[in-house]
Every structure is written in structure tokens, then in C-alpha cells.
Amino acid sequence: MNRARTRILAAVLVFGLGCTATGLATVGVPAGVVSASGTDDVTYVEHDVTADTTWSAEDGPYRVAADVTVEEGATLRIEPGTTVQLAEAITIRVEGNLSADGTRAEPIAFTTAPEAPDRVRWASIRYEGRSNSHLSLSHATVEMAENGLTVSSAAGRVSVADVTVRNVSRNGILVEDTSRTPRLSVERSTFTDIGRRGVAVTPGMGTVSDAAVVSNWSATGRRATHRATFTVGADTTVDALRVAYRGHGGVREVEKDSFSTFGLDLNGNGTVERSLKPLLVGLGNGTGNAYEIRLNRSVTIPADATVVAVYDDAVNPRTYGTYPVEVSLLRNGVEQTAETTLPLDLSSAGDRHRRADRGNAETSRASRFSITDSTFDSIGEQAVFVAADAARDFRVANNSVANVGGSAVSLRGRRVESVTVGGNRIASVGRAADGVRVAAQRAADAKLRGNRITGADAGIALFARHQNVDGIRVANNSVTRSETGVRVRHVAAYYVQHVSLTLADNELSRNDGRGISVVAPSTRLTGVAVRGNDVTRNGDGGVRLEARRLVRTTVANNTVSDNGGTGFEMVGRQVRRGRVAGNRFAENRGHGFSVRTSVVVHNLSVAANRVFDNAGVGLNVDNELTNAGRIDLTRNVVTANAYGVRIAGSLGARVHHNTITHNTYGVGAPVELTGYRPGTGIVVEGGDAGAIFRTGDVDEKLAALLDDPQIERELRGRVGDSYTVVLRPRAAGDVWESDDAALTVRSLSEDIPTGITLPKDADRRSRVVVRNNDVYGHPRGMTVNVSTLVDVNTTTRLLVNTTRTVVAERNYWGAPDGPTHSSIHPKGTGDRVVTRRGWVDFLPVADSALRSPRYRPVANVSVSPNPARVGERVRVSAVESSDRDGRVASYRFSVARENGTSPNVTVSSSNVTVSSSPNLTLSFETPGNYTVSVNVTDDAGVENADSATATATVVVRPREMAAASNATRGTSDAPSGAGGANGTATPNATGDPDGGLLPSATVFSTFGGLLGLALYGVALVLGAYGTVLTLRSAGVPVSGATINGFAAAGVAVWVGFGLLGTDGLLAVGVAGGVLWVALVVLLWAVTRQLYD
């Protein structure tokens, strides 16, 4: 065949095949997809998806070069293993359906081109679906975006499962530009390296409303004064505010002095009631068209308060219209509200005084979504952020959160209801940020349970204002190494508003502040239950409940121990109908359990609690006003506290069937009550601020005898006499409706200056009763200090019952013959009863313990070896110490020289002062006699009555001493608590005489040491001389047997004298023999080498 023809035919075939392939390829490409030319295998996408379309791994990667919309009715299906590469600022908008469901083996990826710089970010996958639309992402990776997924439609459903969202500059998932949320589920997904929030559900503007920027005149492009206002719907704590004008108008020249007004409009009347200008420490313009106000401290903006900023030197936009102004409220650089855009409306009409009207704004709602089983790590702000006017019916559960800049889970709303936050594991949140934070006006039916939180400001925080809080359950959480375990704050608009919550089965330990802190000073705590919690080792205290009134409070089965302040305290004006039962309050550095009121405690039961080893009062009831409120303290065990029980101001108290023993707090500094020494079993005193009276039982008008203008005014409009009067000697009084906790006024008299009188014991309700208790082991069993209820004064003219009697019958005081009292029973041998003011009736007495006796432990100590040499290890043992009704829990050792000087002691043990081990190892640097003492404490915190001691003798050179027992045993104890004799110890010759392998050089100063050294030295000299002659091949004048004989004789002398008692020579003899044998073997080996 002709060669030219062949070439032409081949060219035609190649061209034809190329065209065919191109045509087939074109048929296989979906609508909107353009295949790249050349060697690049990328498929470019530049057109919308208008019909059902599939993107496959075989035809990928797909590079989206222009915004793409999946139109309504169309479905874009992305198959497993497909990679979608989006160009900078590109959005995939979904109005129809998107199904991107990969597999674990073949995940789908949304990313940038591999050649793109790291700074390049594509915009987002944006869902704008209709009611029948859906967006599904599973087993996919979303990375290098501004917002991974943006949801801006409330219709349809969005599902995200097994998705990794990473390296995103703003939010992983963002719900915005819609007033509602669709059905949204996020599960088993991972969010990491997110610039702002992991998942942000912020329909509308979250809780921000009434937002606008208004110019004082309408000239375009001209300098003007702008007024920016916006209202927050929930309490918001901030230390900075940032305002950004984007590309229209300008604030680049705004400075600190430009602000004429910056503060809070608290009443919604357009004026600033609280100025923040004094807190303004700086203003930065930074980059872009923005300014940032910085405050010198954090400020909480109350719910429904309006922030007002009026500033000069702003520049109007160059054309009329409405322009966006972004506002950010920051704390520690973390935004605290939803992304907020204020409209700057500039029109030719001016409209300079227009203010946004919240009534025209649609209420935003966040509901019907769940975020579960997901992981959040390295998040710039909050991991999960929910903000809406109404946030309800959603779950955030079983997620893992670490290394976030803000709170891990933050829920904000005017109303937060029916939400569950549970099973989350949270660690390392931002500075002043919380593990779970709820900020609302109305909060109800929220379940915060099963979370494990470390390293937060508050593990769980609830802030509410102006509305009731109901049905909040905080249960089964663990919060450790945070500032506060659980923190609740409420501010009421009206005093009748209330907070109801349950705190159950939580572990709150090793936090710097309190385990639980509930503070609502103007609110009623109603039906609060604190049950089954473990609140231990917190820095400031265990639990604090503070409110105006605490009603129907239950405190049951909690362990509150080893806290840095009071274990459990209730503080308020009134505490009513409460129950405190089955708790353990132990080893707290303040009171064990304390109730403090400024008005009254009434119908409070404190029963079956174990109260041990607290630095203050075991059970403390402290009323400022004296009243007849009923308090029942029964079946409690109160021991080893600085004080046992204190009743102040509650003349209706009943203290019965308790065990109150050994409250002497032996270890550490006690928290002292003013005027009372520690070591008192029971303190009974009156309130020092006044008294409460009911006037229904008197004929005369109380107003006629009062000289308190405020009381007189309040009594004028009253009908009948069934009302209560609070009289205070040094403060204004109060009048309210009848109160069954009030004292009863029996008579009025104008003949005495005080006006009102109650004869001694005329009202038998108004007496403290202390009956059927075991009270022993104290220097003072009870102190009575009940004075005149209100002293004679010109304000109240009141005197009631100048002598109050405490009924203290049938108690056991530690001895069969009863307590000691200076005048009633001076020969009693039990605990002392002291009456400062008032009187006590303690007869008859019980002659034996009414319940199982409680004993002090007995200390015992021994020292070995004794005598000991300087520098020798000495073992101190208290292992023989004992406790009849428990176990010895700790040992406190001390060492002192008998001449009173400070000992020079080296301690080999890890704990010389207090240890859970009964053994301690010491060494003494100077000779002398040392007194070693030990005190022991049992598992209830009770310390032994007397120390056990032993004398350790330390010598320079050893000497024989007669063996003697140095063990000290205390005598048996008795329930009176006065038993336990001083232990004594005598030296014991047992012990190791060898201080180590190398003896002291002083052993050679003894006769045996010198004789052995002489013989052994002769052997060494002769042996050395013979060795030299042997190496010179000369004759040796002394035989080897003679030389070895001298050495053996020296060794024998040392060993013999050592066995006879000269310390150290036995070791010298053995060492000398071994050395001699080694030298002989070495010499033999050397000579063999030379002559063989």
C-alpha cells in the first residue's frame, strides 16, 4: 500500500474516534456540568440543577465555579466517594432536595481545589427548601468553608449524620434568616477547627429585637450623629461592643470622645437610666469600617434592657436606602448573642427619631431539632448555641466537647422550655464560660442531666429574670475542677415570683467556689428539692440556697463534706415548711448545716442527719428576730464539731432524741461564734434584732402603745386584730397578715413604760424544749442565753417575758448524776450547763446513755530502736491505737526535745504532721532525749482525750541499755468523754546496732580494734614487701604461711571482739577477711601470667 495513503487513513480514523468519544462523553454529563479539556479530569459545574441529577465518583471531582441552585422539585444526588470542589465564596443553594450520602469506606467531600491557597473559603451549602424538601448529608467531609451548612428555611427537614466539619472560618452549621427552624437532626458528627460556633441555631436575630441605627439628618455622604439601639431578650454579660458598617456609611473616625451617650434604657422609655460611659476604657477601630467599645469590667445587660449608643463623626451612606450594620456583644472576645444586623435606614424624609417597633417583629422560635452523639473540638466560640425568643422542644445529648472559646452549650431565649441537655462530656471551655448555660426570662421543664463537666466557670448555669422558673431538673451530673458546680441566679419583677427546681444525684466536687449556688434575693424558692448529691472538696463551701422566702424545701440524702466553708446553708427572710433528713454534713471548714433568716424559720424538720467534724456549728438555726416558729431537730448524730447545735431566736424549737457528743473539734482552727467558746454542745439564745407578735388575743389596740410612725401608718387601715407586727429596736418595723409563727401578746398595759408584757411561761408554745438527748464529751454541755425579747426603748415600748426558761429534761449529760450547774446542781459530774440570761430546767436527768454510747479513740505510740544513734533511722508507730465504736482514721505526730528547744530532726516519711498511716520514720541529727507524741482521730472526727507519748534517746556512741517497754496505752474511755489517760513510754534496747555497711572510724580506738589493726597491718606490710621481691625474681625472707597467719590473726581478733559486743568490729573483721582473700587471688593470677 502507498505509504501516504496509509498516513491519511490513520489520521481520518483517529479524528473519527475522537469525535465519537466526545459525543458519548457529552451525552453522559448531567445538565449544568461541563467537562474540562486537556489532561485535567475535573468536571466543572456552572449552572443550576433543574432536574434530578447524579454526581458520581467516576465523573468527579466536580469543581463548582459559580453559585449553583438546586431548584424546587429537583434532586441532586451525590454518590459515595464523590469529591465536590467549590471555588472561593461559592454557595450551593438547595431549594429542592440534596442527598449526599456516602459510606464509611467511600465518604463524600466538599472542599476547595487542592491547588487553592489555605486562605480560600467557599461560602456554604445553603438550605432554602419548601415543605416537601429535604437535605441529607451522611458520611461526608465539609471543609474550607465560611459556614459549612446554612439553614434559612423552616420548611422540610435537614439531616446531618456521620459528617466531619472542619477548618471552617465561621460556623459549622448555622440557622439564620428564618423565624423558625425546620426539623433538624445532627448526629454522630465531628466539628473541629471551627472559627466561631459548631452549631448555631439562631432564627431571626435570636433574642435581640428593637434594633436600628438612626441618623440625625438625611444628607448623603455627610458627617452625622448616629443613634444605635437594640434590646436583648435575656441577661447578657459583656465587656466589649463591636459595630461594623460594612461598605456603606462610615465610622472610621469615631473616637472615644465621639460618644455623647452610651448606656442602658432599663424602662423602655427612650432615656438612659444607667450610663456605661464611666466604664469605657478604650475604643479601637481595628480593621475594616468598624469600631469596638471596650469596658474596664464585665457588665450584665438585663433582659429587655435596651443598649443605646449615640456617637458623632459617623458618615452617612452615599445613597438613600436601608443598609446593614452588624453589632456584636463580646465577652473575652467571644460573641454572646446571635449574629445581629441593625438596619441603617437613610431616606430623604429624614425620619431622624424613628425607633424600631418590636410589635411588628415576628417572634423567633427554635424547636424540633436534636444534636446528639457528636464531637466538638477546637471551637472558637460556643460548641452549641441556641438563641430565639422561644427555644423549646429540642435535645442536645451525648456529645463530646473540648477546647472551646465560649460555653460548651449556650441556650438563650425569652422562653426556654421543654429542653433536654444530657449525657454530654465537656472539658476546657473558655475563660468565664460555662459548661451548660441557660439564660432566659421564663424557664420551664428543662432537664439537665447526666453531663460530665470539667474546667468551666460554672458547670451548669441558669440565669432567669422577671418571670417564674418551674420544673427545672438538674440530675446525675458530674462537675469537677470548675469555679462553681451548679449556679442559679434569678431576679424577680415582683416578690410573688418563684423558682422551682430539683437538684438530684449530682457529683459536685473539687471546684474552686461552691458546689451548688442558688441566689434569688427577691424571689420565692418554692418546692426546691436537693437530694442525693455528693458535694465534696469545694473551695468556698458546699451548697447555698438564698432567696426572699424558701418554702417547701427538701434537703435529703446528700453527702456534703470537706468543703472550704459552710457545708449547706439556707439564707433568706423566711424559711417555711422545710425538711432536712438523712444527710451527711462532715469535715466542712464552716458550719455543717445552717439556716439564717432575718424574719422567721417555721415548720422546719431536721431529722436523722449525721453531722461530723465541722469547724463551726454542726446544726445552726439563726434567726435575727425572736419568734415562735416551730423547728423540730430529732434523731441527729452531731459529733466532733466546734459546737454541736445552736438555736437562736426560735422559741418554738424542739431538740429531742439526738446524739450530741464530743463537739470539741481537735484539729485545725475552729470557726468561733461571737461570745461562745468552742466545745459547747448546745447553744440557746434569743434573736437580737426584735420580735414578731400576733395581736389577735388582746383587747386594746396595739397602735395606742406604739411609738413607731411606720407601724402606726400601716395599722390605720387594718380591720380586725388578726395581723402580725414585727418590732425592731433599732430599725423600722413591719406589719403583715396573721402569721402562726408569731409570739402571742397576752396583755397590754399603759402602766409600764414598755406597754406590752407576757408573763413568765404564760405561752407554753414559746419555749425551747431540749429533751431525751445524749449530750456529753464537752467542756460545756449547754449554754442558755435568752434575754428580754426586745429591750425597753422609746421606739417600740415593748418588754416581753424578762425570764425565758429552756426545758431540758431527761437528757443524759455523760454521768449518772447529771450535769454540773453552778447553782442548781454544783456537785454534778456530767457536762456543764451554763445560764447567762434566762433559765433552764434540766431535772430529771437520764442516768445512762439513751442510745449507743460513743467513745473517744485511744492513742498509743512506740519508738524503735531506742536508744538510737545520731542519723539512724527511727520508726515511730501508733499502730496499737484503737477506737471502740469505729476506726482510727488519722494520726498526728509531733516531736519535741525534753529541754524545750526545737529538735533537729530529719523526716523520712512523706507526711510528718497528719497521716492516714500509723507509722512515721525519723532520724535525729543531735543527741539528747526527745518526746514523741501522737494524737489520733476516728472516722467521725473525734480526737483522743490525751496524747500518747514516748521518749526517744539519741546517743553519739552506742552502749548497752536495759530493755524496757516504751509502749504507751491510754486507759479505757467512758461515754462521758473525760476518759483516756496520758500514755507513757520507756526506752527499749531492741533495734539494729549497725548503722550501715561502713562502720565509724571510732571502732579502731577500742582495744580489739587496735590489736586487730596491728596484726592485719603487719600482714599487709610483709605481703607488699614479698610481692616486690617476687616480681624482681629475688628470694622472699618471710614465708607466705607466716604472712597469711598475721592476716588471719587480725581478722580473728576483730570478729571475736565484735561478737563480744564491740559495735562495728564484726563488720570490720568480715570485710578484712574478704579483702585479704581477694588480694591473694589477684597476686596469684599476676604471677601465673608472668611466669607461664
From TrEMBL:
Keyword tags: Membrane, Transmembrane, Transmembrane helix
Pfam families noted in UniProt: Beta_helix, PKD_4
Source species of the chain: Halorussus aquaticus
Alphabetical list of InterPro entries matching this protein: Beta_helix, Cadherin-like_dom, Ig-like_fold, PbH1, Pectin_lyas_fold, Pectin_lyase_fold/virulence, PKD/Chitinase_dom, PKD_dom
Start and end residues of each PKD domain: 857-959
Segments crossing the lipid bilayer: 1007-1029, 1041-1060, 1066-1086
Keyword Nucleotidyltransferase applies: no
SUPFAM superfamilies: Pectin lyase-like, PKD domain
Superkingdom classification of source: Archaea
CDD domains per the UniProt record, alphabetical: PKD (cd00146)
Domain Cadherin: from-to ranges: 862-977
Signal peptide start and end residues: none
Membrane listed as a keyword: yes
Positions of the UniProt region annotated as Disordered: 962-992
Protein's name according to its UniProt entry: Right-handed parallel beta-helix repeat-containing protein
